[in-house]
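TL;DR need structure tokens for one chain.
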Amino acid sequence: MIGSHSSLAQGTANKIMRNRLSRLILFATSICLLIFAHAFPARGETEVRFQEVFSLVRSNMPWMEPGELEEAAIAGFLKEVNGRMVVSQTNILTTTVVSKTAVYENRFGYIRIDQVQPGLALAVREEFARIASSNQVKGLVLDLRNSSGRDYEAAAELVDIFVSTQQPVLTVGEKTITSSSKTEVIDIPVAVLVNARTAGAAEAAAAALRHAQVALLIGTNTKGGARVYQELTLSNSQKIEIPSAPVSLPGGALLPKDGVVPDVTIDTPIELEEKVLKDPYAEVGALFHFKGTNVSGNGANRMRRPSSEAELVRLHRQSREQGNAEPLPEEISTPRMTDPALVRALDFLKGVSIVQQFKGN
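>> reply
TL;DR here they are.
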């Protein structure tokens, strides 16, 4: 009985070892194929064909199963053409395209867009109308960080609600999408927030808003690779997507493969960005220290932010009971925002608002 258990354990251990070895070989082969590819002469010189290299590797690595070698070759190929061909992903439409709205300082609207898809323009227009109905809105922040989508018609429709004249917005393949001539538009300064996960139709919308001289882009380079994809089915029913049409701005400029470069670069660490996207007033500790208006970490000279409005009232009442008639310090009465990109956007909108005020006078 003991011998039987011992044999079973040994068999299991050998199986695990073989699986680990197979994965290691798969990874090593993929790397080798990539190295061979980069070592080949440039096109136009003496070329070595892929099939020749594949056959050479297969004949000199007989311990690899044919399927494993093919998987390695495919993995290396997909890595090499990353951004130009992708494994097919189901384009799921979300029920909510706008995930958050807010008003800062009673005059600057904020709308976060999760997905660029049909109905986005209407949703943004309705949310803006709701914000503007109870506030004198002087500027708007559109947050496209982590936003994506494949619907370039929806991206152009978003731009359209900010543009009063008929003009080209985006060209998708051979089709040019234009805005319409109208009198009712959102005609206030706009700042658009982007990051490395702003992709597809979202980065196209950001670039088009800037090209139409509607918005200033703030953040980091977008993901890149905004284009129309065609889905193809393999013999094993798996699907891949290859680019079938480019996406360009008016004038023919293609969206950069390395991403759209913002007008103002705010290089925010990922861990900080994830935290402040949930709460722009989050305590960030040593994650970041931004030398800008109204942003800081947990420095020694910073007072703790009250956890609730009730605590703020309690502190104010306690201050009065102690005979202190002065208002609470600004650090307590006004929570400090710790989202660097949003802070810069609000600073920009404040500056434009001041300039417009002086022009009006």
